[in-house]
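Sequence in, structure out.
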Amino acid sequence: MLDVVLISVLIFILRVVDMSLDTFRIVASVKGAKVLAAAFGFLEAFVFIVALAKVLSPPLHLLEMFAYAGGFAGGTFVGTYISGGMSSRHALARIISLPASREICSRLREKDFAVTRMQGEGRDGAVDILFTVMPRGRQGELLEVVRALDERAFVVFEPIERAEYGYVPQPIRETPVPVRR
């Protein structure tokens, strides 16, 4: 019975590693890192085969099957958590508010957000569109400002892969830091 438990633990660990590698492979693919994605894919497939071979080798044990499924879930969680660090560190926010765009723009600038305001045209006529590039960790702060002034404002966040020139205020510093990647 001890052998079954040890093999189940091994299977669980292999699946956590396998699924974490799967998440990294997907992130690398989306970012265009072909060689890195291929390397993650190779390792993922190898670990998967080893884990599956252990589960399917006779005699079959229910505990090993549970370890396999649990490792899948655990690896998905771990991979998603860790891959957050591989994601873009900055985000672009687009804000459209019919009643409060100028006030939102002013309040965001007071809080050291770099905001660009442009005229646009929506379904019902002219609108101001506010753009800001910020550290990803400041999205909640931006939403608090926007929602305090217009809880129905349309806000969209997108990850930024690359930004050149301009500036993005950093969350720890008191002055804007030039951005050039």
